[in-house]
Amino acid sequence: MSRAEFALLDGAAPEEVAELLSHGRRRTFASGEIVFHAGDPADCMHLVRSGRFAVRIGTEFGDVATLNVVGPGDAFGELALLTPGAPRSATVAALERGETLSVHEIDFRRLRSARPQTDALLAQLLAARVRQLSGQLVDALYLPAETRVRRRLLDVAAAFGDGDDSGDGSGDGATVPLTQEELAGLAGTSRATVNRVLREEQQQGTLELHRGRTTIVDAAALERRARGLFG
Predict the structure, then answer these.
(1) Which structural domain range is residue 188 located in?
(2) PANTHER family annotated for this entry (predicted)?
(3) Boundary of a domain, candidates 137, 158, 192
(4) Could you give the angle at which helices 105-114 and 14-22 cross, rounded to 10 degrees?
(5) Predicted TM-score (pTM) above 0.70
């Protein structure tokens, strides 16, 4: 295990990363398995080594909304390191077979006591999450729903990037195994809007629709359209 596995730890001191990872416990999850439920006491952070995990919440209307999809090199549950025992704010489920490195808050607290500079690692993790959420908030406030759908689709496709069969890292061939309802939750819009955007993109040749999944055919063209560059 090395920090090279976890892009969000880039820039951190190698010795601090090595110390953090040495306290991690390997966890494996089957497809569809729940890692933790919203409301469960928070006790650990998960660094994702393989697989993809959906972060979901229940709405006041009884629906389930997908907030994010986390893939290799990313993390979830990091607030447990700041507020141990507080209730989890979301449910996390494995979208496929996956593996994480689980760092318990007790081990992290001991590490912080022995090496106070380790706090910089936690600050880096939280800063990365704030940047991501800030970008999504700006999108939600200022971008049309159709643009948000395209951007969130690209975000999730990036998490499934090792499905890229083009061999050039372009994203072409990546398959997103989310339903239109789940994509609607990510984009903060309705399923009808997602359906309309996806069918339009299929007509443009940027993607192919299948039952419960979407395959990216031309990621570059989809990205241009997500930036508002049509034609």
Answers:
(1) 143-226
(2) CRP FAMILY TRANSCRIPTIONAL REGULATORY PROTEIN (PTHR24567), HTH-TYPE TRANSCRIPTIONAL REGULATOR ARCR (PTHR24567:SF74)
(3) 137
(4) 140
(5) yes
